[in-house]
Amino acid sequence: MSPRLRLALVSSIIAAGLVLLGFGSAVLVLSSSQAGSDAAVSDASKIPPIIADSHNMLTAPVPVRYEATGTATSTYGTDTANNHAVEGTTTGNIELTDNVLTQASIEISAAGYPTISFTLTESCFLGRDAATGDTNAIAYGLVTVDGVERPTDLSLNASFGEDTGTVTGTITVPNDLLSAAQQSAGFSVQSTDVVSGTVDFSLNAERLADTSDAD
User: InterPro entries annotated for this entry (predicted)?
Assistant: First the structure.
């Protein structure tokens, strides 16, 4: 065999060996990738599934309505020196939906004083403790005195249980309403710096029966 032929044969053998080596490496990489994929699937199967029933976002919260009951002591005044504490009657309805005050209509009346009412105009978040403990919040709405209404705010403390609730608060009465009603209401405005008066109130509320269950 000539040297040239021998060199060609050796080159062919080396080339064939390189091809086989490359094929073996490709098979090894493919096997490793498949094994990694199988391992990932196996690990994923160990993750506990999310149970939708624990937090069902498709179920709308159910509003709960309360009705004010009994009498309450209300304090009328424009400052600490001119307060008038009287026994009056507080009535109204309150609707609570998932710790949010969605509706409220409160009326306060006492002998010798004009009727004062408050109507909620914006939903008010009471906090996550509204159903189990005291919570503080500011509610916005309309106050009406002697048939004249003005926008105002209501500072309230609320505690709601399964069947009953308690609400105490302070209604701010704008001064232009006091100017018309202060004589009959007992408000005493002795300074032009006085811009508003207040009415402190408290009420007990009982949960209304759910009429949707009557059918």
Answer: TTHA0802/YceI-like_sf
pTM here is: 0.59
With 0-12 CB in 10 A as exposed, 13-18 as middle and 19+ as buried, what is 154?
Answer: buried
pLDDT digits (tens, 9 = 90+) for 140-176: 999 888 788 888 888 888 887 778 888 888 887 777 7
Question: Tokens representing 47?
Answer: 């993750």
| CB 118, CB 93: distance < 8 Å | no
Tokens 């008066």 correspond to 197
pLDDT at 71: 58
Q: How far apart are CA 143 and CA 117, in angstroms?
A: 6
For the chain, domain boundaries: 1-37, 64-209
Going by C-alpha positions, the residue among 165, 105, 104 that lies closest to residue 131 is 165
CB 152 within 8 A of CB 120: no
Residue written as tokens 């009951």? 69
d(CA 75, CA 79): 11
- DSSP type of residue 10: H
Cβ pair 122, 137 in contact under 8 A: no
DSSP-derived secondary structure letter, 113:
S
Inter-residue contact 76 to 115 (CB < 8 Å): no
Topology (CATH) of 64-209 = Lipocalin (2.40.128)
pLDDT at 52: 41
